[in-house]
Structures are given as C-alpha cells and as structure tokens.
Specification:
The complex is a heterodimer of chains A (389) and B (306).
Chain A lengths: L1 E12 L3 H9 L4 H8 L2 E12 L3 E6 L5 H7 L8 E6 L2 E2 L5 H10 L1 E4 L11 H12 L3 H14 L15 H14 L4 E5 L7 H18 L2 E6 L2 H7 L2 E6 L2 E6 L1 H6 L4 H8 L9 H4 L12 H12 L3 E5 L5 E6 H10 L13 E2 L5 H10 L4 E4 L5 E5 L1 H6 L3
Parallel strand pairs in A: 3-8, 3-9, 6-7, 7-8, 13-14
Antiparallel strand pairs in A: 1-2, 1-4, 4-5, 9-10, 11-12, 14-15
Helix pairs in contact in A: 5-6, 5-7, 6-7, 13-14
Chain B lengths: L1 H8 L26 H14 L1 H24 L2 H15 L2 H16 L3 H31 L1 H16 L6 H8 L3 H25 L3 H9 L4 H34 L8 H10 L3 H29 L4
Helix pairs in contact in B: 3-6, 4-5, 4-13, 5-13, 6-7, 6-9, 6-11, 7-9, 8-9, 9-11, 10-11, 11-13, 12-13
The chains are: A alpha/beta (389), B mainly alpha (306).
Bound molecules: adenosine-5'-diphosphate and magnesium ion (MG).
C-alpha cells in the first residue's frame, strides 16, 4: 500500500522560483538557469511512491538534490510545485496548524550531523518531541527511557550530546525520532558522518530495529553499497532528477543509464545478488519412478554428468551421476539405490558471497531449495563466477 | 642631542610648523548649516508634546531605583560581603570568593560604603531596564532583516558617540539627578546586549533549528526551548559588557548630579585631593573587576560541554 506518493515535485531556490518554473519545464539545464536567472534547481519534476513498511533509499552524488527532496517531505522545504500525498492527503496544502500536527504525529527526521540540542541531556533530547506534543513529564520520561535502552544508550541519559562519540550521538538522534512513534522516518545521510566501522554497526542496528518496528523509512545516502544494503527499493538521483527506481538487483542487472552503470561498476555484487537471482531451472529432472534408463537419456540429451532426482511434488530426493546410473542399468538397480547426497544446498535468499566457497569445492551443481526441501532451481559454478564480473 | 644632529643632516627643520596657508584651504564662513539648533528644537518639542512619556519613564526608573536601593540598604553589610563571597565561590573558586569579599570590605574601610551602594543601585537599575529593552530588540533583529537594517546603524552610532554626549539630552529631558544619569546610562549601555542577543540567536546551528521544526515546534517554542538556551552564553557576555559600560557611565553621569563614587572622584579632582580621589577611583576599579569576574564565572556555568 502506498504511504507516501510524490507527484511531479519541483523545488527551485531563488528569489522568484515560480517565475522561472516555465524555463525549467522547458528543459533548461541547471547551470544555464543559474547563470541566467540566479536560480538553482534542487529537485526537478520528481515522482515516486513509497509503500507502507518499506525502506526506500535515495542515492545520488553530493548536490544531486537528495536533501532538498527529503526536506520537502516534512515541508522544511516548501515545494515550488507538485503534490506530496501522505495517507491520501496532499500535505503541501496543509495549514500551519495541520502541518504542526503532521510533524508531531506522522513523521520524524534524523539528520546528517545529528542536529542534537547541545543544551539538553541525552534524555532531554529524546523527550523533545514528546514535550512538543504536550505529553506529561512522567509519561515522556517513561517512553524516553524505554527507547533509550532499545538503542543501547543505558547509563548515558544524563550526559550532554557533546560528551558522546559520533555513533552514540546518532543513536540519540535515532532515539529522538523514534520516541515520537512516527509512521514515517526521514533519514538524511544519517551515517555519512560516522567512520566505516561504526557505520556498519549502525546499519545493522537500523535493519534490526526496522524488522521489529516496520516503519516507512526514506533513507538518503551517497553510498551505493549502503543504499543496496538497506533499501528495499532504491531511487538514483542525478541533477535533481530521479534516473531509476528499482530494487537493488534490478539496478545491478539492468541499470537504466550509463551514469548508473558507472555507479554500480564498483559495487561488490556478491553482497547484493542472492541465490535466487542467479539460479536457473534445471534443464532436466527425473523422479525415482522414471528409472535409470530415462535418467541416462536425459543426461545424454542435455550433455550433463549428474541429475537431481525429485518426487512428483518437486521435493528434492537426491542426485545421481552418469557413471552410477549406467552401472545401475547393468546391475538392474533402481534410481533410489544409487542416490547420493554430498552436494550443497542453499536457500533462495543466500548471498552469493556465501556461496563462493561451496561453488569452488564441489563438482555438482548447488541445489536451491525452500524450507520444505522443494527444488527451486540450481546454480552451477560458472554462474557464480560470472556474477563476479 | 638628537634634534640638532638631525637638523644638521637636514631631516627636520624647526621651522616646519610655519606652513604657508593657501587662501582656499579654510572653509568659507559664508557657507554654513547648523544642525544643532534643530536637535535643540526637537528636544524642546519632545519636552512640550510628549512630556507625559518622559514623566512615565522617569517614574518607572525612580520606582525601580528606589526598590533596589531600599533592598541594598536593608542588607546588613556583613551579609552583603557573605553574598559576594558565596557567589565568587560558586562561580569561580573559594579563593576568588575571599578576594572579592575582601575588596568590598576595603571599600567599606575607605568609608565609601554608602556611596558604593548608591552607585550599585544605579548600575543595577540601568542594567535591568537595558535588558528588558535590549533582549527583545535583539531577538527581533535576529528574526527580521528589516529590523536589523534599522537598528544596525543606530547601534553603530550609539557606540561611537562619546559617552557624555548622552548627558546633554538626558539633562534637558529629565533635569538633574539620578534619573538623567540612569537614562543616559541605559542609552550608553544598551548596544552590547542587543548585539550579542542578535548574534547569539543567529549563531544557532541550522540543523538544530530544523530539528526543532521537524518535531512540530511553534516559533515561540523554538525560541524558548532552543534558540534562547543556545544563545545564553553569548547573551551572558552581552549582559556583562552592558554592566561594565553601565558602571563606567554611572561614574561619568555624576556630572549631572548623580551621587555615588563618581561624584566623589569629581569632587576630589576639583579639590586636587589625591588621597580622596584615589580611594574612590580604586573602589570603582574593584567593583568593575568583581562584577566582570563574577559574570565570567556564571557564564562559564551556562556553557555546555563542547
Ligand atoms: N537553501 C538553498 N538555497 C539555494 N540553493 C540550495 C539550497 N539548498 C540546496 N541548494 C542547491 O540545491 C542543489 C541540491 O542540493 P542538496 O539537496 O543539498 O543536494 P544533496 O543533499 O544531494 O547533496 C545544490 O545545487 C544546492 O546548491
Ligand atoms: Mg545532503
């Protein structure tokens, strides 16, 4: 279900944004507009939808308009034109009072440089939104204390933000946003200011928190690895325009432009692609009833030296090799007598990075099965290796 | 020794001051425009037409002055010392507290206690009124560039004007005594608190303001919960400067008949009484130092860990 729907959103900075809107619509370049009129295009005719409970990552180089876009979503930036529909209401039309209610109840923001109130203690920061909502002192202290421990900040409540490390400070920032229990969490490069180790830790923590809370998260980053790691879907921005919106796998496998291709070139695909993305339907399968003769024929026809055996519900039974099967015909054995089981299996959501060791050490294909042992597809060594390049 | 030598070398001549004047070098007397008379008539006009306003200002300042003086005179002298000691201790350390109390004690031994109280009373009154006027103006300036454009040049002018210039309109509007002294002091001491309030609020980090707004704070809530607390250390510096300037001005304002330590210095100067002048003068210095240090100490407390 769509939670946030943005339609033809444009944000222009300058003295008279509406006045230059037509030029922008006619496709004047960003540099030319700046030189001619002194206006900067922040976001240019952007449309997208964010579904309830999804993490939507917006990726782009510095200056591509990511902050401008996300700040439109809680109207810290007033759009020049366009609609932002949240839960069916266009928030751009909100009165001052409605806007305050919206900010108090529906949406919270986490900032790149944390934006913490340095004159308030950690707990005072976390309580801020609740205070603005008019929640009683006792109640807000209770809520804040709970949130505090859920982000691992126990014992720090009475410290001031500047006494904390960067990672800790952003935990406070996250806790402050979560304390309000918003539906939508806006995160503008929240981990960019942290060093890589802490960043990774925070990413994992966010994933964990999200798996419990199921908020709708809009997450800005300039790091494509981060976007792919956290985003259910990713929008790639360039010069105020969204170039592609897709799942990380789709972007990897079919980038919409050279710009994006350039981006994904450096990415470690094995951390993004999963077994299900590179598996294929086996060209041949046999059931135990088919017997060795059918099995040999299938292997010969497809030029393969082993074959997975499944029952009529496609539940994986085992594997037979060509040598064993030919032997079986001579000795009058059935397929069930010669099944072997020393091949590797994997779930469909396993990352390729984790398949690599197995792929290198086995002479049989890897079987991709679901939790009921049903065979979904197979992966051969070649396809694992080819995904690396 | 040196001058004859230089003369010999020809670097300077003793006749250098007898420069020939070009006839065009003096400004012609016939072209004249006197602005002073207009100011004079403005003040007169004010006196006749808005005298009510000045009476009101006068009454309010006298009322505040009286309350403060009554309070200060009600305090036993040793209690006053104790307070100075305690604030000094809390704000800085125990040694500072002891030194400050001792300096005040010295002023008492000079026989200048009552005059000190008078001076302090006027300083306090001026500072309180300055803050009541100055902080809101500073806030308005930080919010609106229009207000800023109006007040910036005014503040510049106020700060470059020699302090006793304010005494002239003050005397014309309020005659002689404490009220014109307080009035002139307020005008003179107002700029720092306005400037630093404005600066302090402008300096608040943009992301912090956005954070406040993103939680749905009203402008009023943002001001009270974020901007003012953030600006407080800067505003404290402004209050300190305003207080120091008020002290300086109250001393000068003795020219218009305000009693206190300044008056004592004036009398001593006119009688060439060095001993008397020194005691009063050094007492003023003690007060200035103590007030400054106490403020710095208190301001330090308002800083948040960096
Ligand atoms: N307040 C502003 N006034 C004028 N131009 C701005 C303002 N904010 C952003 N911009 C411009 O809009 C463009 C996009 O900026 P931004 O959204 O901050 O990019 P990003 O967050 O992707 O780095 C940039 O060219 C920037 O200079
Ligand atoms: Mg940005």
């Amino acid at each position: 279900m769509s939670k946030v729907k943005v339609e033809n959103l444009t944000k222009i900075f300058g003295r008279n944004p509406k006045g230059v809107l037509k030029k922008v619509k006619d496709g004047i370049s960003k540099d030319k507009l700046l030189a001619e009129t002194g206006h900067t295009v922040g976001v240019n005719n952007v449309s997208f939808e964010v579904y309830e409970g999804e993490t939507f990552a917006i990726m782009g180089l510095s200056g591509s308009g990511k902050s401008t876009l996300i700040r439109c979503l809680n109207l810290l930036n007033k759009p020049t034109t366009g609609k932002i529909i949240v839960d069916g209401k266009n928030i751009v039309d909100y009165s001052n009072k409605e806007l305050k209610q919206f900010r108090k109840n529906k949406v919270a923001m986490v900032f790149q440089h944390f934006g913490l109130f340095t004159h308030r203690t950690v707990i005072g920061n976390i309580e801020y939104g609740l205070e603005i909502k008019g929640i009683s002192k006792k109640e807000r202290n209770k809520i804040a204390t709970e949130i505090l421990s859920s982000v691992g900040l126990e014992g720090w409540e009475d410290k001031y933000p500047n006494e904390l490390s960067g990672g800790m400070q952003q935990r406070v920032g996250l806790a402050r946003a979560l304390a309000n229990d918003p539906d939508i969490l806006l995160m503008d490069e929240p981990f960019s200011a942290l060093d890589p180790l802490i960043r990774r830790e925070m990413q994992l923590e966010l994933i964990e928190i999200q798996s419990k809370l199921k908020k709708t998260i809009i997450f800005i980053t300039h790091d494509i690895n981060e976007a792919f790691k956290l985003g259910d879907r990713v929008a790639v921005m360039k010069d105020g325009i969204i170039e592609q919106i897709a799942t990380p796998e789709e972007i990897l496998t079919s980038p919409a432009s050279d710009y994006i291709r350039e981006f994904v070139k450096d990415i470690d695909k094995t951390r993004v692609l999963q077994a299900k993305h590179i598996m294929f339907k086996p060209s041949a399968l046999v059931t135990p009833r088919d017997g060795p003769k059918v099995a040999v024929k299938e292997m010969q026809k497809n030029g393969i030296s082993s074959l997975f055996v499944v029952n009529h519900e496609r539940i994986l039974q085992g594997l037979v090799t060509i040598d064993d099967t030919i032997n079986a015909i001579k000795e009058n054995q059935s397929l069930t007598d010669i099944l072997i089981h020393d091949y590797h299996t994997t779930g469909p959501e396993t990352y390729i990075k984790d398949l690599i060791p197995n792929a290198g050490s086995t002479k049989y294909p890897i079987a991709v099965i679901n939790e009921n042992n049903k065979l979904l597809g197979i992966i051969v060594r070649v396809s694992v290796l080819s995904s690396l390049v | 020794m040196i001058i004859p030598t230089l003369q010999k070398v020809g670097i300077i001549t003793l006749h250098a001051c007898e420069v020939k004047k070009n006839t065009m070098s003096s400004f012609p007397d016939s072209i004249s425009f006197k602005v002073g008379i207009y100011v004079n008539s403005l003040v007169n006009w004010l006196l006749h037409n808005v005298s009510r306003l000045f009476e009101a200002i006068s009454e309010v300042s006298i009322w505040i002055l009286l309350k403060i003086e009554i309070f200060l005179y009600w305090l036993p002298w040793w209690f006053f010392l104790l307070i100075i000691f305690l604030i000094g201790w809390k704000a800085k350390n125990i040694v500072s507290g002891l030194i400050f109390a001792f300096l005040i004690f010295l002023i008492g031994m000079f026989g200048l206690w009552d005059l000190m109280i008078l001076t302090l009373g006027m300083v306090l009154t001026s500072v309180i009124i300055s803050l009541v006027i100055g902080i809101p103006i500073g806030i308005l300036m930080s919010y609106s560039s229009k207000v800023n454009n109006i007040f910036k040049p005014l503040l510049d002018a106020m700060q470059t004007m020699p302090s006793f210039v304010y005494l002239i309109p003050a005397v014309m509007l309020f005659r002689l005594g404490k009220v014109p002294a307080v009035f002139a002091t307020i005008i003179y001491a107002l700029p720092p608190v306005i400037r630093l309030t404005d600066l302090g609020i402008r300096q608040v980090h943009r992301e912090m303001l956005e954070a406040a707004h993103s939680f749905g704070s009203s402008s009023w809530q943002t001001l009270l919960k974020v901007q003012m607390p953030q600006a407080l250390p800067t505003i404290m510096t402004g209050i300190n400067q305003t207080t120091m300037m008020a002290l300086a001005m109250v001393v000068i304002a003795s020219m218009v008949g305000a009693p206190g330590l300044g008056m004592e210095v004036m009398i001593a100067v006119s009688q060439l009484d060095i001993a008397r002048g020194f005691e009063a003068g050094i007492s003023i210095v003690f007060l200035a130092v103590i007030i400054d240090r106490l403020f710095q100490g208190v301001a330090e407390r308002f800083k948040y860990p960096e």
